[in-house]
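User: I'm writing a tutorial on reading structure tokens. Could you give me a worked example: one chain, its sequence, then its tokens, then a sentence or two explaining what the tokens reveal?
Assistant: Sure. Here is the example chain.
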Amino acid sequence: MADVTPPDYTTPTGQVRLLCTDVTAPYAFSDEAIGVFLTLASGNIKRAGAMALDTIASDQVLLLHVVRTDDLSVDGAKEADALRKNAQALRDSADADLAADLDASFIVVYPEDDCYPEGVDIPLYGRLVGIARCR
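And here are its predicted structure tokens:
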């Protein structure tokens, strides 16, 4: 019998489930499948969620195509397109997070008064630089 416990949203697996709306049993993905998405996304939860959404979108296209009955009409391609847009939004958000992390992690420090420590190659940019000890 399938696991019917609700996802634990404090774990990466639960967070990926939330992003791809796989939150009610029976789940579309096993915990192992979510783990593979996380591995392929190098642990990035948003990218793993995007992969899961892309997988669901592919399933929609393969299974549904366009179905019309008396009172029901389903277009798998349109649903898949909406899912892929959500996946792209997650990827864009992950890119923005990465850019913010990179911006916060670099500090540019310029040497003062052309003073360089001993043993360091001194850059010469068309001018002479005196060799001095740093204070």
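What the tokens reveal: Strands lie at 66-68, 73-75. DSSP finds four helices and two strands in the chain.
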